[in-house]
Automatic annotation (TrEMBL):
Residues 46-423 form the Aromatic amino acid beta-eliminating lyase/threonine aldolase domain. Keywords: Lyase, Pyridoxal phosphate. InterPro entries: ArAA_b-elim_lyase/Thr_aldolase, Beta-eliminating_lyase, PyrdxlP-dep_Trfase, PyrdxlP-dep_Trfase_major, PyrdxlP-dep_Trfase_small. The keyword Lyase applies. CDD domains: Tnase_like. One of its GO terms (biological process) is aromatic amino acid metabolic process. The keyword Lyase applies. This is Tryptophanase. The modification N6-(pyridoxal phosphate)lysine is found at residue 257. Its cofactor is pyridoxal 5'-phosphate. One of its GO terms (molecular function) is carbon-carbon lyase activity. NCBIfam families: PRK13238.1.
Length: 457
């Protein structure tokens, strides 16, 4: 059969509240034209994030009842630890309440003034956790990854030549860690090839620099390797996952993505001394090492989710549903990052709204219009999220790309929901001449996109 169906039946449902366009105009204005400030109840289809928004399975919900809530040495911890070790192969597994808590611990220990951390592209919380210590976060993405219209199989790859040059320039002693983000969320959810991982590992070995993964979407990345990389089509996703992690010294993980749960994360590694320091900090900031920032039931749900995410029927449906939305949009001429990534479609706002300059945030304009038009909540990933101000002139230094992300929660929406999304985006595209730019009226000093307020210009 050609039709790829959702590989699950629906047992519990949650009603969607419908709003009229007039209601949405008021809601959006009251939210300062920032969808982060809209109440979830006022959203029809929520594509703000794929993080923590997964539908859990009946097995995961049963796990919630089985959760061992003992303070120390709970049975649920050992199930979690063994599931994470099975995937990462790492010696130490430290549970945290989410990804950024793992980042905070790792970079507090390794960071500091004069240090540089290198990635294909750091996610915004990861970058913030690095910069908070006074260190610099450096993105060395391959050239094709920066061109939304170029179709290439592994646009998340790290630029190996630039990596070597950067290490030579700054000195290996100033680079505590290289981190590969799989898949590359900020660059369009694009995968990284095993060949690239091997090359990066080689460079890291030459200079004695540890290699970590930001592993949030490791299963989606592995599926892309199976589909696109030579020599992997006959390997199971589980085997590919093992191979990926065999090249890493450790991971930070947000279980809110590819562990199919609503909260959780971990930090894993092989280094004895680093693990000891991380655990000590964990006790101060998160909790005892066998629960981190989580309840026993959360650990159970993660362990079960890690089993389910490697089911190839699930991954086939998952990657296909994102691709399906991408195909509908490109057929209508909507510019997106091609090919579609794993967890989201990224609209290229520069090409969608060529007449709105970065200073007027074209991505924000699309985000607002999608909400007004169809109650869809999406997120700007462009100069609102990553723009900086020139310290001397105060002028905006725009982000590399102006994107709007339509992130697809896992196992939540059906094909007809996605058809509706496509219709709303295409409708918005067809009246793009009427869209206006925005200006910021309030912003916080860090991670401003979460709380900024805007006005149309
Ligand atoms: N790394 C990547 C690549 C991420 O995408 C995220 C979260 C994190 C780290 C941090 O994890 O949220 O559990 O603290 N990304 C979400 C998103 C928020 O919407 O893309 P967290």
């Amino acid at each position: 059969m050609k039709t790829i169906i959702e590989p699950f039946k629906i047992k519990t449902v949650e009603p969607i509240r419908f709003t009229s366009k007039e209601e949405r105009e008021k809601i959006l204005k009251d939210a300062g034209y920032n969808p982060f400030l809209i109440n979830a109840e006022d959203v029809i289809i929520d594509l703000l994030t794929d993080s923590g928004t997964s539908a859990m399975s009946s097995e995961q919900w049963s796990g919630i009842m089985k959760g061992d809530e003992s303070y120390a040495g709970a049975k649920s911890f050992f199930r979690f630890e063994s599931a994470v070790k099975e995937i990462t192969g790492n010696k130490y597994v430290i549970p945290t309440h989410q990804g950024r808590a793992a980042e905070k611990i790792l970079f507090s220990i390794l960071g500091g003034e004069g240090k540089y951390f290198i990635s294909n592209t750091f996610f915004d919380t990861t970058r913030a956790n690095i910069e908070f210590t006074g260190a610099e976060a450096v993105d060395l993405l391959c050239p094709e990854g920066k061109k939304p219209e170029v179709v290439a199989p592994f646009k998340g790859n790290l630029d190996v030549e630039k990596l070597k040059a950067f290490i030579e320039e700054k000195g290996k002693e100033n680079i505590p860690l290289v981190m590969i983000t799989i898949t590359n969320n900020s660059g369009g959810g694009q995968p990284v090839s095993l060949e690239n991982i091997k090359q990066v590992r080689k460079v890291c070995d030459r200079y004695g620099i540890p290699l970590f993964f930001d592993a949030c979407r490791f299963a989606e990345n592995a599926y892309f390797i199976k589909k696109r990389e030579e020599g992997y089509s006959n390997k199971s996703v589980r085997e590919i996952v093992k191979e990926i992690f065999s090249f890493a010294d450790g991971t930070t993980m947000s279980a809110k993505k590819d562990a199919l749960v609503n909260i959780g994360g971990w930090l894993s590694m092989n280094d004895d001394n680093l693990a000891m320091q991380c655990r000590n900090l964990l006790i101060v900031t998160e909790g005892f090492p066998t629960y981190g920032g989580l309840a026993g039931r959360d650990l159970e749900a993660i362990a079960q989710g890690l089993e389910e995410v490697l089911d190839e029927n699930y991954l086939r449906y998952r990657i296909r549903s994102t691709e399906y939305l991408g195909e509908k949009l490109t057929a209508a001429g909507v510019p997106i990052i091609e090919p579609p990534g794993g967890h989201a479609i990224y609209i290229d706002a520069k090409r969608f709204l060529p007449d709105i300059p970065p200073e007027q945030y074209p991505g924000q304009s699309i985000v607002c219009e999608l909400y007004l038009e169809g109650g869809i909540r999406s997120v700007e990933i462009g100069s609102v999220m990553f723009g900086k101000y020139d310290k001397k002139t105060g002028r905006l230094i725009p982000a590399m790309m102006e994107l709007v992300r339509l992130a697809i929660p896992r196992r939540v929406y059906t094909q007809s929901h996605i058809d509706y999304v496509a219709e709303v985006v295409i409708e918005t595209f067809n009246k793009r001449d009427k869209l206006k730019g925005y200006k910021i009226t309030y912003e916080a000093p860090m991670l401003r996109h979460f709380t900024a307020r805007f006005e149309p210009v």
